[in-house]
Amino acid sequence: MPWLILAHFKKNSLSKRALVTGCAGFIGSHLTELLLDKGFEVIGVDNFDVFYDKIIKQKNLSEFITNKNFHFIEADIRNENTWKNLTEKVDVIFHLAAKAGVLPSLQQPAEYITTNILGTQLLLDWMKLYEVKKLIFASSSSVYGNQTKIPFSETDTIDKPISPYASTKKAGELITYTYHHLYQLDVMNLRFFTVFGERQRPDLAIRKFIQKILNNEPIEIYGDGSTARDYTYIKDIVGGIFSSYEYIENKTNVYEIMNLGNNNPVKLINLVNTLYEITNRTPNLIYKPMQPGDVNITFADISKAKTLLNYEPKTTFKQGLENFLSWHLNQK
Ligand SMILES: NC(=O)c1ccc[n+]([C@@H]2O[C@H](COP(=O)([O-])OP(=O)(O)OC[C@H]3O[C@@H](n4cnc5c(N)ncnc54)[C@H](O)[C@@H]3O)[C@@H](O)[C@H]2O)c1
């Protein structure tokens, strides 16, 4: 999309303006919709990274691309010109653009470093230049590594990330702290726990499994099925992201790290059985060894988000899966 569109985008002084990086992705597209519903003007940046099919991301964007308060820029956050060309004033940045995915980060660590660390650094320099003070950063539960103490709390030591992806997310938390300290940015680092629901990334287990079940193909289970994830429904996550903005909107000197999870880990075998149940199919499983970089469990202590944000995930795991399934069946 051309930069020209942006040149015609005159700020309405009554509404807030947000910059959403990664707006064409799974979480970014839901967040953008929520912000538009709340009356924000949104500038969305995304480069349609090759991690998964551009057509899926264009479909995500098509939900709101015609909204007059939305302005899309196809650009790469690693490119200095992206930031040089962006001269519009914004009130808040939701930084979701990233190379996501644990396993692929073992194959392409340098790609993860440049996107997730250099891209974040260039954004922070842009914030400094334009004196944008509010930043919501998408961190991840993977920073906790394979720790055995559960649930995971924000005060736990996170010195042992076990994938390049996890290291880059920890790095993001550190460099945002540095800019908070040096340039008084107000920062919320949100550690998302396995987000699922409509438009979920195609590399993630639930979307892959549903496809296989509907095609009557077997599902491959890595490990013995006892690994567990604190699956969190997309609408609960974007609600939490928005609440974190409301939390910093009128405050200064804020730097917080916060879990956004469900506080209810589900074992892989239970996930799979629920998928067979809601699709009325008979289980057909193949067991394989655990994959490197994968953690055994994620389990969020969400008491901090409850206290500071009134965050309270509302969607049950089964309901979220049913929502995902009916969305998936309506695709094509
Ligand atoms: N989905 C989850 O369960 C989960 C869990 C923890 C953290 N996160 C984090 O949340 C954020 C969003 O994740 P998602 O699941 O929506 O992933 P996603 O891949 O669907 O979205 C990321 C978006 O960023 C864009 N992007 C990637 N590199 C870019 C670049 N160089 N320049 C501009 N845009 C670029 C991609 O094209 C994509 O649209 C990521 O930062 C991810 O690490 C996600």
**Assigned CATH superfamily of the domain at 16-193 and 234-261:** NAD(P)-binding Rossmann-like Domain
- pLDDT averaged over residues: 94
Strand order of the largest sheet: 3-2-1-4-5-6-11
Q: Which percent bin holds the helix content?
A: 40-55%
Q: Characterize the largest beta sheet: strand count, sense, and whether it forms a barrel.
A: 7 strands, parallel
Q: What is the helix/strand order?
A: HEHEHEHEHHEHEEHEEEHEEHEHH
| Rg from alpha-carbon coordinates | 19 Å
CATH architecture of the domain at 16-193 and 234-261: 3-Layer(aba) Sandwich
> What small molecules are bound in this structure?
nicotinamide-adenine-dinucleotide
Task: Describe the global form.
Answer: globular
Low-pLDDT windows of residues: 1-5
The top-level CATH class of the domain at 16-193 and 234-261 is Alpha Beta
What is the helix tally? 12
Give me the CATH fold name of the domain at 16-193 and 234-261.
Rossmann fold
Portion of residues in beta strands equals 15-25%
Structural class comes to: alpha/beta
| Overall number of strands | 13
What this model shows, in words?
This protein is α/β, with parallel strands linked by helices and 332 residues long. It has a domain at 16-193 and 234-261: Rossmann fold (3-Layer(aba) Sandwich), CATH 3.40.50.720. It is built from 12 helices and 13 strands. The chain has helices at residues 4-7, 26-37, 54-62, 80-85, 103-107, 109-130, 164-183, 205-214, 234-249, 268-279, 303-309, 317-329, and strands spanning 17-21, 41-46, 70-74, 92-95, 134-140, 186-192, 195-196, 219-222, 228-229, 232-233, 255-260, 266-267, 285-288. It is globular and about 55 Å long. The protein binds nicotinamide-adenine-dinucleotide. Nicotinamide-adenine-dinucleotide binds next to helix 2, strand 2, helix 6 and strand 5.
